[in-house]
Amino acid sequence: MTELFLQNGHLSDEGLQALIDGTLDELQRLEAAEHLSFCDECLTRYTALLTGDVLEEPEQDVTLPVMRRLRRRAVKSAWNRYAAAAAAVVITAGLWYSGVFGGAMEALAIQPPALEQTAQAQEPGPLGQLLERIGVADGGEPARPDNGLGPEHRPANVHQLDDPEEAGPDEPDDTENGGLGQWLSQLINRQDN
């Protein structure tokens, strides 16, 4: 039976090798696993022994055949792309010269004037009616200073002054100390009352 632990409490090299080989009984394996769970030095030695195994070498070198196969696939893929592009060009040219696209192009060339004529014959929509109402449909200035939105379209609490000099006592005065803030607070107080 191999000595599992050394005098200093660490696992011996023979014990670590027996653990790797699987020749320890169940109790010894549990003791070694418990020791490896808290001893970093033994765990480092154990992993060094595990990674020290020699990797199996392939019977023959596979690098050259694999590289040849990859190169053949790349060339075949490039030829397939060029062949697909050439086929698309040939099909498109054949359809173009046969007149398949010619009729559609002529129909498109005729349609825009027809659309303009029907658009001129139609009545103006809501926006056109509004522009006619305020007098700017022909590109001129509006006929009314309020852009056609008369008093019937304004909220009840909005008042329009014809002359800026006619500001009433409720209007803000920029020369006072309060300015706009004081005027807003007075307006809010009036609405609360």
TrEMBL record:
Residues 183-193 have a biased composition (Polar residues). It comes from the Bacteria. Residues 137-193 are annotated as: Disordered. The chain crosses the membrane at residues 78-97. Keywords: Membrane, Transmembrane, Transmembrane helix. Gene3D superfamilies: Anti-sigma factor, zinc-finger domain. The keyword Transmembrane helix applies. Residues 163-176 have a biased composition (Acidic residues). This is Uncharacterized protein. It comes from Allofournierella massiliensis.
